[in-house]
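To: structure subgroup
Subject: Chain for Friday's discussion

All,

I'm putting the inputs and outputs inline so they're searchable in the archive.
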Amino acid sequence: MKKKYYLMALAGLMMASCSEDNDPFPGGGGDHLAVSRQLTFVFPGTAQGVVPYSATASEAENELKTLDIYVFGEDSLSAASPKPMVLEEIFRSGEGYELIPNASKYTANISVPAGNNKAFFFVANGREHLSLDSLVLHETDTTLFKAKMSNTLKGHIACPMLMSGQKNLPDVASAITDAAGNGIDVDLERRMARFDIRNNSETSRFVIQTVVLDNVPANVPLFPIDGYEAPLLEGKMPVIDFTALANSNAGETNSVFYLYPTAKTDGTGLSLSLAGKDLVTNAAQVLPVTFKNYTAAAEGDPFISIEANNRYLVMVEDMGFGELTATLTVKEWVSGDTVNVNTGDGTIKLSADEDFATIFADNTLSVDAEPTLTDSVTINVAADGEWKLVVDEAAKDWIGVSEIPSGEVQKAFKVTTLLPNPSSKEARQGVVMVQNVRRPSIRQPLIVKQAAQDEATGRYLDLSGAAVAGNLLSFSGEKTDSINVSVAAPEGTTWTATKTASADWFTFGKEATGLRDAAGDGSNFEGRNSAVFSIVPEANATENERVDTVTITIAQGGAFETDLVQKLVVRQAARNLGSIQVACIGLSKGNVNIPADGFADKTIAEHDGERQVKVKATTAWEVKIEDGDTWLSLVQVDGSDYTYDDKGVFNGYFMLKAEAQTAGAGVRSAKVTIVNTIDEKIFQTITFSQAEGPANE
């Protein structure tokens, strides 16, 4: 049985009376609203765990950008019973094998030794999560592995989604495929929940402008752990500009935000608020949403849990209470494992000389905030086969390694840090992977962890701001007002902020404080001590996001041999295709009833007997009529708001004409859909139902 959870927050908004003569857009009719209405939120969640794929999940939420397969086998040297399962190999898509599309699924072909107990753990889109860098071949067991955690959040969760799954195969030789040779199905579950919001401002009389989240779950186990309680981040996340999302305030807006699972919804931790405007009084309004399960209140369990892999819907109700049964789904896929036993590649083990014992432990090399430069650390490699070094792309600018001569089995390599850590708030780390050349799945990571700067004696550049999360500044495609970025630097420090040469879509704002426009054209600023600069973007008119970088530098000097470099990634979403809102006389809950003899409207000169439908839209739209070809027709109207090819441009209107019913004819209906010309998922539908014709004489 599906569980249904209800989240209700009664916001006591008093709705003024509104008759059919009150038009949401001047000149037309609108829905009838009752007097003294309550605005009610209903928050149902269904489909616990993995459910069949449906269009509810977007392509981005189903994407397998990367898929890593961790293979565990019995520790043959252990005297314990049962023997512990330890990590044997890691297969990484794009490096050790390829994910092969197969209809709506993917196939992964890997090669593992047959005949012994195996456990396979699957982590999708998880390579940036640092806990996975500390795995050690033939030492990390399944208990330690399943306790690995995601990174602590610095901003909102984004696609691609972190997913995980597990498959135990007691006998690989016999269980690697089924009788038909089709491979083994693996279910992946997302490790977060999705939240959608439904609001139709034309009938709720409330416009949501921003979504505010406070004390959200900080991280999540990569695999479910019974009884785990997520720690909460203290303070608010960056606000979400709800008006910039597709279909905002005009129906259901999907994927507004994601949350890691938590049971702490008792009103003292996680909080959600919808901030906006009451259209009746035109006053600002903040609506707190309480995570309550009213169906269980009588049993002493009034609060709900946020479960991973579920979809939750917050609804602004028009008429009393309501609920929507909706599911967040995971696309199924197939992992077809092919046995191709290949032994003799051996293992890899890393160590350091005694001189470095204090800074090397558990495959982790801990270094100071300032770069080591020529003072390299030697890492010894115990391996039977040829190996190579692979440095994380994001760490290549500050981690240097010695080159490995081709074809040789070198027994050691040197590691050097090239740049200082620019942060005084947290250490940073990168990974150098020691990888078997012939069998890339046999690999051992070296984690290079660079300490944070000493705020009292070091140099640093710490970034903050209402829209800044870590080193990322994100905003919508429509945003054109300035966004402030605060730079904290030691007293007496001079620094320069420079944007990428190709970043012609944003400028530094002239209202920056404590800064000098070094070039005189707004391309860079010079600052001293702590200061604030602003970024002013242009609206994005394309279907692609834009990403560029602002580089903030403290030049070398004094005891420092290198520049200190901090980077701010500036990301702008693709243009918002917006929403579509419609209004016309007689419209109620998406339906319009028509008399048998057609429309009797007199709204526009020379169009008597036609019904005007007004449209509010952000981008171009068109009109489609279904099941009404013989009696309901679209009347084209002259004017700049409407073109003769049936496509509206932003706000506009169209006219409909209904033929009279013939004697004895029954009730008939037609659907009129106003749909975005670029994204057909943005639409509004009105059903016109015409009364039956007069009785036959």
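Points worth raising on Friday:
The chain has four domains: 58-287+327-341, 348-450, 462-572, 580-690.
The first helix runs from residue 59 to 62.

D.
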